[in-house]
Amino acid sequence: MFEILDSKFNHNSHNRAILIRLFGELDEELLTQILEKGKVLELDTGAFLFNQGDLENSLYIVLSGRFRALAQQKDGTLHALGDIGEGEPIGEFALFMAEPRSASVVAIRKSVVLELKENEYHKIVSSYPAFSTKLTRFVVNRLRRNSLQKHLETSAKNIAVINLQSENDISEYTEAIKAQFESLNVSIQILDHDSHANLELQTMYDTLEQHEGLNFLVSSNEDLAWSHQCIIYADLIVMATDFYADSSLQEIEKQLDLYSNNILNKKIYLLLLHPEDAKFPENTRRWFENRKIDLHIHYRKNYGPDIRRFARILANKARGLVLGGGGAKGFAHLGAIKTLYEEGLEIDFLGGTSAGALYGLTASFVDFDRKKIDYYSKESAESKLTSNDFTIPIISIMSGKKMNNYVKKMLGGAYLEDFWVGSYCVSTNYSTSSIKVHERGPAYKQIEASIAIPGIYPPVVIDRQLYVDGGVVDNLPIETMYNYPVEHIIAISLSQLRTQEVDFDETPSASKLIWSKITGKKRYRLPGISSILVNSLTLNSRQKQEMTKSGVAIYLEMELKGIGMLDDSKWKEIVKKGHDQMKTALKNLPEEKKFW
Q1: Radius of gyration of the CA atoms of the chain, in A
Q2: Which of 191, 192, 231 lies closest to 211, judged by CA?
């Protein structure tokens, strides 16, 4: 399964640096003890470090390579839990818990680990008790990690690049990416067929592992043996293609067997290359036929935001913006987005529920162009989408036709996968009582589903199933953003979670409320029927929001008192509130947390 390497390998500076990165500063003698007591094991691609149910309890530290954790399902199939990269421990709980392994771990490329058996661990601790404290502290900190940190995988070190049109020169795109990484002090090593195909396997492996930055392994359509090696060594595959080229499966994809069901399959990103000043993409979905793509990325030539976005995505340092629901209060999202871009905080992924879907995806649709955001803010408000739309209240108070017609007119035939920036929205599948994340499909239809507030708007039919407002199950879909390679999440809530008290003992009658309004005394301050209905529907969602907000880099609850759920007459005021409150939030953020 694996072999023990020469003990001299234990003492190189790389391995010492890995241990220090993991446990913090260690005494020199302790470092030597760990490296001498531990065994350095090399695993080939496909070799299992251990299997689910095994009783052995060694601790492993990844010195190089990449592993995948797999859990066996009831039907016997294996489900990937995530990847484990250099500098991460595997099986640390085995030293403390006498339980079988909860998952299997397999090497997805040639890898090296340091194995520390239980008896060796006890010998080290007897001489250096502080090591026990350091390991325990690490385990506790891992348990405390928020959901984002648990989902965020180690960034890829080796990236295989496949150019689907070998006759097309993509060097101008790749040179811009290289320059972007170098500006971030990340060194790039490019290994192509001409320069590295004739190296011995061990020399090739050493070349990759000894380089501290990123390795780009460029495949060759003429040499499949070299291309296979690129895939074997890769942590991630990036397929680059001219967006307007023939989208049918290319011969190299078939020969490399990229899309078979295999536990060793690497993640595949599809890089769609556009010319300068490209028009809005159309029919992106054709590229997904017969392919299993983990992420697609639109990239315009010489366009700075796209270059920077792609670099952040490859480094697992992308930014995600999550927007909550709240009816007309959603205009505040547009003001907040304008502030983010004024401050140089570019967005790489966007997700929203209800109003967050409507206003957020509008901003994403126009590629965060502030002039266009202002235009659609004004136009949608002046269209009075929530006025004069009442219907016979059998399934809803409003027909939703004005809103739906406007959204359809604005977005036209655009699909979510056509947006320049990766975007999603959330709705509730009424037919199955479950959450639905919309990442593909006609944009107007997915937004309709996300904003279909039960009782206010009628349900939306998609594929013969009924969908209603996403706020019923998740009014601020932070958890969904964890599925993207983001490091920093910005979340904006339109509904405040703090306790709101009233200054009367009993709910006033309708006549008292009317009289209070006529006299102008405004004695009773009660939310309108729409607010009561929406807030009642989203009670469980608000509890989820409370639990997930701790995992974000910036969390902002908008202060929007006095603004009704359907009152878009105050749109200018709402946009300004969103703009100003986000500006204040960014200004008050401690310097060390200003990640941009």
Answers
A1: 27
A2: 191
433, two tokens: 């009582």
Tokens 């659609």 map to which residue? 376
Which of 396, 425, 452, 434 has its CA nearest to residue 324?
Answer: 425
Residue 412 backbone class (left: φ over 0; alpha: ψ -120 to 50; beta: rest): left
Structure tokens at 163: 């150019």
Identity at 169, one-letter amino acid code: D
Percent of the chain with pLDDT over 90: 53
Residue with tokens 């608000």, as numbered in its chain:
542
Of residues 150, 134, 186, 153, the one with CA closest to residue 20: 134
Q: How far apart are CA 69 and CA 47, in angstroms?
A: 12
Measure the CA–CA gap between 327 and 449, rounded to whole angstroms.
Answer: 14
pLDDT at 6 over 50: no
Measured CA to CA, the distance from residue 587 to residue 343 in angstroms comes to: 10
pLDDT tens, residue by residue, 81-108: 889 999 888 988 777 777 889 899 999 9
The answer to whether residues 355 and 330 touch, using CB atoms and an 8 Å cutoff, is yes
Residue 568: closest CA among 357, 334, 344, 339: 334
Both tokens assigned to 242: 């001219």
CB–CB of 1/48 below 8 Å? yes
The values of phi and psi at residue 279, to 5°, are: -75, 165
Amino acid (1-letter code) at residue 366? V
Structure tokens at 545: 């929001």
3-state secondary structure 525-589: CCCCHHHHHHHHHCHHHHHHHHHHHHHCCEEEECCCCCCCCCCCCCHHHHHHHHHHHHHHHHHCC
Q: 3-state SS string over 196-245?
A: HCCCCHHHHHHHHHHCCCEEEEECCCCCHHHHHHHHHHCCEEEEEEECCC
Q: What is this structure's pTM? A: 0.86
Structure tokens given for 319: 């930014």
Token pair of 261 as six digits: 């069901």
Distance CA 84, CA 103 (A): 13
**26 Cβ neighbours under 8 A, 6+ residues apart:** 19, 20, 34, 131, 134
Q: In this predicted structure, which of 17-26, 119-128, 163-172, 410-419 has the lowest mean pLDDT?
A: 17-26
pLDDT digits (tens, 9 = 90+) for 310-327: 999 998 889 999 999 988
Residues 110 and 42: beta-carbon distance below 8 Å = yes
Distances (CA, A) of 315 to 157, 229, 592: 9, 22, 20
CB 186 within 8 A of CB 260: no
CB 543 within 8 A of CB 472: no
State both tokens at 36: 């001498």
Contact 306, 547 (CB under 8 A): no
